[in-house]
Specification:
The chain is α/β, with parallel strands linked by helices. It is 23% helix and 30% strand. The strands form 8 sheets. Strands 15-14-16-17-24-23-22-19-20 form a 9-stranded mixed sheet. Strands 4-3-5-6-33 form a 5-stranded parallel sheet, sandwiched between helices. Strands 25-32-31-27-28 form a 5-stranded mixed sheet, with no helix packed on it. A hairpin with a 5-residue loop joins strand 27 (556-560) and strand 28. The two termini are 40 Å apart.
Length: 680
């Protein structure tokens, strides 16, 4: 037996007082005169025996009254009931789910309002002196502190439905970490939610016997829903007036088919494409939207689907991308610039072509170039190798062309092998012809009309075979002998294209073949592989900005297109780039601009995560089964319709023995009164 308030046990000393009073009264005698001594003798013997029994019985009752009163105040409980230590105060954390699914209407009210009412009932079931923590999906820093019960009830009124959805496995560790700092208090956790399956993965929970966790279940009406899951361009090469195809993934989470569902795409406020699609029950459909844009610069797009169901938060999807007016190309030449490469880029005014000698490179300006071509180097200084590696790892695009010699300098070979994980094998002077072109790659996707069969491809006199060393290499050109002479690999955030031939008569007629044009021109656009079309709200993703000259007094801001939202992100310069973090300040989906003063320097798009699009929920019975299957201790479930009272709140934790002790005390007092009054 343990005691909730053990200090009250000192009150047992009070049993001395009735004992002393009774012992003192036992020694007091009264003189009574009788005429018949025989009668007096019999009466005295009988009265003294009864009087002793009565007095000892009253003494026992009064001692028990004091003992039971003290024990009741000490609040005894059985240690077999719980392995936890019980304290005099309570700290109560209530998580009110305010995600989008809680906006649905239940029997009498919206689910979030039902959750707020239940949370209020929970708070009123505890003492005003207890401490409370109110959490929602926002999980902002202000919530992670204890407040009074009155403040808790007031803050419930401010809870609104929003899209900052968090999975339970993300919320639970933060609650446990918060409670780890709470000392000498009983710890209660209440999760009031509709328990959407996509947000509750019980297999990730760990037992924490210091917490008493109650899952308060609010049933959801299981509404139908259709959502836009994602959008992408298969060919991420954006040029003015270019035919582009936007792929939109539409997900039907309903048990019925939807026919002739309209979907549209607007770009900078102008409708660019539309389509009608059919989606079978519980399936996914990929919709193609074809368009072109005569605009350049930052482009903001919005895809919209006409969902007939009542769930609408995921019917719009936002994306932003950029069509550059100028692409900066740098050729790093050994001695003489390659005239064929220069001629290729001079065919289009979008390219600004610069050639520098390998011995006089301005390393500080490398990050400004969209493509750097390392053209036929005879050797490579260690400083140049280091700077080119940094450029690529930070998201740069590098093309390496071998020299017109039979032997490659070890410094160049080491750079290609160690940094790019590619090996250029000794030169092969056997003539061959390019037989294979990877027409599925963005460089050549729209170059050939179908198959390359029958196309006269370049003839190669000699070549260096390109061999992969890092398991990341993709082949683009192969000869009739299966040797690869052109391909690319990823190096952290960047791309490296490597040729085994050069646009030079020494290697064949590739320099005069039409294939040289798309090989280099389209290469310059592929840096846009690194530009994200959209970000997810609440995921705290890094936003990368290149070619930004950030001065000490620069303040970058993120503004919505209607200028109703403006935030100052966290700014971290890193290796010639700027990394931005919105710090979860963006809560509304839509298109945004990054502004340097009044100038928009980049576009952003934010969407809600698709965590809640699947309208599938756990029932209360499901929760009970999952708790048993995962052997979760101190977990229990409560239906929100149950009467939330102290007995239901504290079931299985506090013993109600003190109540029975009070009842016994009352019975003992009644017994004492009866004995004194009726025992003569």
């Amino acid at each position: 037996m343990d005691f909730f308030y053990p200090n009250f046990l000192f009150g047992l000393i009070a049993v001395i007082f009735p004992i002393m009073v009774h012992l003192f009264n036992f020694q007091r005698y009264k003189v009574v005169y009788f005429s018949n001594f025989q009668f007096l003798q019999n009466l005295q013997m009988q009265t003294k025996r009864q009087s002793n029994v009565k007095r000892w019985l009253l003494l026992l009752i009064r001692i028990l009254i004091i003992v039971f009163v003290v024990l009741a105040f000490a609040h005894p409980y059985s240690s077999k009931q719980t392995s936890q230590k019980i304290f005099a105060t309570n700290t109560v954390c209530v998580f009110v789910d305010n995600s989008f699914s809680m906006a649905a209407r239940g029997e009498n009210n919206t689910l979030v309002n039902q959750a707020k009412t239940t949370a209020k009932q929970i708070a009123l079931s505890f003492a005003p002196s207890d401490k409370f923590i109110l959490l929602t999906n926002d999980l902002n820093s202000e919530q992670f502190r204890t407040i009074s019960r009155d403040d808790f009830i007031l803050k419930l009124d401010n809870i609104k439905v929003n899209g900052a959805s968090k999975s339970f496995s993300e919320v639970f560790p933060r609650v446990a970490d918060l409670f780890s700092q709470v000392k000498n208090s009983n710890k209660f956790v209440y999760l009031v939610s509709d328990f959407q399956k996509s947000a509750f993965d019980f297999s990730k929970f760990k037992n924490d016997t210091s917490l008493i966790i109650n899952l308060v279940h609010i049933p959801h009406p299981h509404s139908e829903n259709i959502s836009i899951d994602s959008c992408w361009f298969e060919q991420p090469i954006f040029r003015q007036n270019q035919n582009l195809t936007l792929y939109v993934q539409v997900h039907n989470y309903s048990n019925r088919e939807f026919v002739n569902l309209p979907i549209s795409f607007t770009l900078n406020g102008n409708e660019k494409a539309s389509a009608i699609t059919n989606i079978a029950a519980n399936s996914i459909s990929i919709v193609e939207l074809n368009f072109s844009s005569s605009e350049i610069g930052i482009l903001h797009g919005e895809v919209e689907i006409n969902d007939p169901s009542e769930i609408t938060f995921d019917n719009n999807f936002y994306l932003s991308f950029k069509i550059n007016s100028t692409l900066n190309i740098l050729e790093i030449a050994d001695k003489i610039p390659n005239q064929f490469i220069k001629a290729v880029f001079e065919t289009d005014s979008i390219f600004k072509f610069t050639s520098e000698n390998i011995k006089s490179i301005n390393y500080n300006e490398l990050s400004k170039y969209d493509l750097i071509i390392l053209s036929q180097p005879s050797e490579l200084a260690s400083g140049t190798s280091t700077e080119l590696t940094k450029y690529v790892k930070n998201g740069g695009l590098l093309c390496i062309i071998p020299p017109s010699t039979s032997i490659i300098n070890p410094s160049v070979q080491n750079f290609i092998g160690n940094e790019c994980l590619i090996d250029l094998q000794p030169i092969d002077t056997a003539g061959a012809q390019i037989q294979y072109v990877n027409v599925n790659h963005p460089l050549f996707k729209n170059v050939f009309d179908g198959s390359i069969a029958g196309t006269e491809l370049p003839i190669i006199k000699r070549h260096f075979k390109v061999v992969d060393k890092g398991m990341r290499f993709q082949e683009l050109f192969k000869l009739t002998n299966s040797d690869c002479v052109f391909g690319f690999t990823t190096v952290e955030k960047g791309l490296v294209y490597v040729f085994g031939i050069a646009p030079d008569d020494y290697f064949g007629n590739f320099s005069h073949h039409p294939l040289i044009v798309p090989s280099f021109l389209n290469m310059a656009f592929t840096r846009q592989y690194n530009d994200k079309l959209y970000y997810n709200i609440g995921n705290q993703e890094m936003i990368r900005l290149a070619n930004i000259d950030l001065k000490d007094d620069n303040v970058l801001k993120i503004n919505s297109l209607d200028n109703k939202t403006e935030i100052i992100p966290q700014i971290i310069p890193s290796n010639g780039e700027i990394h931005l973090y919105d710090q979860n300040q963006i809560v509304n989906p839509g298109n945004y601009n990054i502004k340097d003063g009044e100038k928009s320097i980049a576009g952003l798009a934010f969407n809600h995560t698709q965590l809640e699009s699947n309208m599938d929920f756990f029932s209360k019975n499901d929760l009970d089964k999952l708790i048993a299957q995962n052997k979760l201790q101190n977990f229990s479930t409560i239906n929100y319709q149950e009467n939330i009272s102290p007995s239901t709140i504290q079931v299985g934790f506090f013993s109600s023995l003190w109540k029975w002790l009070i009842v016994i005390v009352l019975l003992l007092i009644i017994s004492e009164v009866m004995i004194v009054k009726f025992w003569k």
